[in-house]
Amino acid sequence: MTLLSLAGETIGWKEHDVLVGVDLSIQEGETIAFLGRSGSGKSTLITHLYRRLIAAGRAVALVPQDHALVPPLSVFHNVYMGRLDRQSTFYNFANLVRPMRREVAAIRLILAEIAMEPEMFRPVERLSGGQKQRTAIARALFRGGDILLGDEPISAIDEKQSAVVLDTIRSRFSTVLLALHDVDLARDYCSRIIGLRGNRIVIDKPSGNIERGEIEALYAA
Amino acid sequence: MPPDPKGPTGGQWPGRREIGIGVVLVGLAMLPFADLEVSTRDPWLHVSRFLAGFLSPDFNSIKSIAWAVVYTVAFGLVGVFIGALAGLLLAPVHHLRSVRILASTLRAVHELFWALLFLQVFGPSAITGALAIALPYSGIFAKVYSEMLEEADRRPDEVLPPGSGAVSRFIYARLPMALSPFRIYTRYRVECGLRSSAVLGFVGLPTLGFELDAFFKVGRYESVAAVLLIYYLMIATNRQWLRPSLIPVFLVAALGLLITLGGPPFRMENLVRFLTEDIVPAPLRDASLLASSTWVQFSGWLEALLSTQALPGLWNTILVTQMALAVTMVVALLGFPLIVARLVGKFPSAGGHLLLVVGRSTPEYMLVYIFLQMLGPSMLPAVIALGLHNGAIIAHLLGRQADALTPTLRPDAPGGFNLYVYEFVPRLYGNFLAYIFYRWEIILRESAIVGILGVHTLGFYIDGAITEIRLDRAVLLIAVTVLATFAVDAIARGLRRRFQLSMNDLASREGSAIY
Question: With 90 as the cut, is the pLDDT of residue B125 above it?
Answer without folding.
Answer: no
